[in-house]
Amino acid sequence: MTRYPINFVVSFAQIFVIVFMMIIAMSLFFGEGSGGMSGGFGGIIMFGFILFMFLSDTLWTIGYNIRWEQVQGTLESLYLSPASKFASLVSRVSISLVWTGLNCVAALIFVSYVAGELPYNNLGLAFYILVFSLSGTFGMGFAFAAFTMVARESANLAANALQFVFMGLCAMFFPFSVLPDTVLWVSRLIPLSYCVDAFRSTLMGYPEGYPELLPIGTELVIVTMFGLAMPVVGYGLYKIAEKRVRIKGTLGEY
């Protein structure tokens, strides 16, 4: 990343631009006494934004990067070497954890100085939810990496579409209560929805009506199971896709 300094700076600076645009857009809907971004609505937006950042980065860094290596011709060379394929896949998680984590912290600090303090309650439990949410999200990245091996060029469009589908269905920037009943029914089938609901409700101190989907105890069980099971499922799908493309001889195809 540091070998391309302009990309390095832009990838960090764009977070401030995105957050500033969100503050300007949301300020249009804040009335007197609402508390602005420092109110409950600000917590809904920003804490959902954190999980969206990790989801988006996971799809591209873990999932689509497999496709990018296929295009560059390095993926086939990797499979001809004795290097650990599992380590190659898991190592991509470090970018999401370190770089995206720093971006998220910077975004929260920026909002605190520009628009007011956000609520930070139950930090220990919120950290637990975040860890298992990220574990499940990385498992989704492994599953998407399997898809990119099979779909190849169509994976680019899929990555773009999925991040916005999850953004809407998992209500990452707004309450679940504004979703139509049919859409809300679909949201309840997605484990990531409970991660979003539990994470921001916990940090907001469980105001009236939160969490919205299920009691917090039930959501914690779902989040934990998601964080434990999804990496195993995702890597299993990746191994199946890997075996398929190696047998078909399409591992190095553009």
Describe the protein:
This protein is an all-alpha fold. It has one domain. It has ten helices and no strands. The protein has helices spanning 5-27, 40-72, 74-79, 85-90, 93-115, 123-151, 154-169, 181-187, 191-203, 216-248. It is globular, with a radius of gyration of 19 Å. The two termini are 24 Å apart. The model has no long low-confidence stretch (mean pLDDT 84).
Measure the end-to-end span: 24 Å
Q: What's the number of domains?
A: 1
- Proportion of beta-strand residues: under 5%
pLDDT under 50 segments (min length 5)? none
Binned, the helix content reads over 70%
Arithmetic mean of pLDDT: 84
Number of strands: 0
Q: So what's the oligomer here? A: single chain
Cα shape = globular
Structural class: mainly alpha
Please write the string of helix (H) and strand (E) elements.
Answer: HHHHHHHHHH
